[in-house]
Amino acid sequence: MPVNSEKIAIVLLTCAFPLILVVPITICTIFLPIWLLILALAKVFHPELEYVSNGFEAGLSHEKSLEPNVFNIASYHVLDGYLSLHIIRQMALENVFSLKKDNGQLLFRRLKSTITFFLGYSFWKVNKTFDISDHIRGCDSGSINMKLPNPCFEVDLSDVMRNLVVLPWKKAMPRWEILVLHIDRSSSNSRPQTVLLGRWHHSIMDGYSYLHLLETIFQEQFDFPTATPSNSPRPTFREYFQKLLPILRIPIDLAESICDGFNIHNRFLPKERNSRKSYYACISEPIDDAVVHKIRKKYDVGYGTVVVAICSGALKRVYDLEAQPFLDTIPSQVVFPVVGHPKVVANHFDFRPVRLPLKSKSSVNRLLETEAQIKRAKRRFLLSPIILFHAIIMPAFLSDILINCGVLARSSFVISVFVAQKSFSLGGCKVLDSAAMFTHTRCLVGGTCLCHGTPSRMRMSLMINKQLISSEEAVLKFSQFVREEADALLET
């Protein structure tokens, strides 16, 4: 919608906040008693079930969100040395599946569980036929075989992971796996390399949880950035007042969110819903983490801001190759870590709407505009906990609509960043390289970008719908454009 119309709509919706507030109150009044009754019935008649206590997971547990290539995450870690499949399985059995809570239940019970439904609500149920060999296996074993190049080098892993992330899951099996393969070195060094190809559905765990799973299997300690509690002195009256401001902005924030959902002019979305397998993918060449820190210090911006700005700048250059008019900004979801990520497999993060600036006078202007947008997003009252609570108490099909059409569908792009702060090892073998990829085509999101890696080899992955980019060659240029955007920020 035009800018003036959008401002008018925000003002009207802000004034109508008391009326809008009736909607969540009505939902709670109707579904909270039903939800409590369902929990009680499940406890009596199916004590083996564990209710889905996370609204994001509840929204992803519906059958439509469990389809192939919907909400899947994949990653690879290249290890400098040889680890046999048998040893990795034994380490997983001893270090992961033997851990128990105080009540005797498995600490990593979810890895043995699948989603089931009771009276329309989602529950976790342990798979009694669970076999570790179905989940930690070679590429040429199991129910799904994946062909690899022969010989297979590190440069082939991008195509391998792109194919892996969209493979269908076997029904009635927990949706996670770690594939172990051994690849050839492209250099004269004869030392073997082991690759861990991980794939999991987002309803089971997020990226940090997968890394913690690897930590537990191999008894290693990573150093990935997470949000930490503040140890600042007692806040002043002015600081207390500043903390109250986001609450006072709730009507405005809600109005802006609603406008984002209907702002078709500002969307970056495919037009058809039957294109869930139609996308291009590219993983960038590695970037030294020191480059990101130099840019961060030079312009006094956040680490995530630099990554997001480089990604959006590279995306803009990709679209420029299409020689078509493009958007000034696109509504996006940027994932932020939150305090106290549990040391189990779970989903524990915040996702905040950010209007990603694409068209800009220069790369530096885009960086500064991105910093302003991210700061603004962090100051806004976070509506997602309220929405996620409603997703918990509603039946699975309504939770699916609420999450996919009410939250994530407002965004055209999803960006997540998790990069190690120092080098790390797995099973005594140094991790030489890593990357991650995320499929998100359930609600017509135009593309996703994940930034993952080690300090010396950070990589960005781009997945974008084919209806938005007609040429795969343009998408493959993303890697080159990432480097050019980083150089432009350093040289300016």
TrEMBL record:
Keywords: Membrane, Transmembrane, Transmembrane helix. Residues 105-232 form the O-acyltransferase WSD1-like N-terminal domain. One of its GO terms (molecular function) is diacylglycerol O-acyltransferase activity. The keyword Protein biosynthesis does not apply. The chain crosses the membrane at residues 20-42, 381-403. One of its GO terms (biological process) is glycerolipid biosynthetic process. It comes from the Eukaryota. It holds the Pfam family WS_DGAT_cat. This is O-acyltransferase WSD1-like N-terminal domain-containing protein. The lineage of its organism: Eukaryota, Metazoa, Ecdysozoa, Arthropoda, Hexapoda.
